[in-house]
Amino acid sequence: MPKRSESLDRMFSALADPTRRAMVERLARGPANVSDLAKPLNMSLPAVMQHLQTLERSGLVTSRKIGRVRTCRIQPKRFDAAQAWLARQRAHWEARFDRLDAFLEKSED
C-alpha cells in the first residue's frame, strides 16, 4: 500500500472542486474578505462559507475575523507538499519513459 499523507489527501480533495480552485486563484492575488470571494460565484454566502471551511481544513487558506469582516489569505507554503509529491511522480514517470525509449531504440537495431 502506498504511503499516504492525510494532509496531502485533504489538499487534493479541497482542490478537486472548481469553486475552491477559483477561490484559491483569487486569493493568490492577495487577501480578500468573504463577500469579495463570493461576488464572482453564483451561490449563496453559506455555500461559499462551506467551501472556505474545506480550504481551511486543508491548510491552504486561513481566515481571520475582525468585527464583522472575515478576511481570507492563502498559505503558499502549504502548496510545497503537493508540489513535492507531483515532482516525485513526474520524475518516476520520466524515468520509466526514458527506459522505454531506450528499450525501443535497442529493439529497432
UniProtKB/TrEMBL annotation:
The Gene Ontology terms for molecular function here are: DNA-binding transcription factor activity
Matches recorded under Gene3D superfamilies: Winged helix-like DNA-binding domain superfamily/Winged helix DNA-binding domain
- Coiled-coil stretches, from where to where? none
The name this protein carries in UniProt is Transcriptional regulator
Q: Which NCBIfam families match?
A: HTH_metalloreg (NF033788)
Q: Where is the HTH arsR-type domain?
A: 1-94
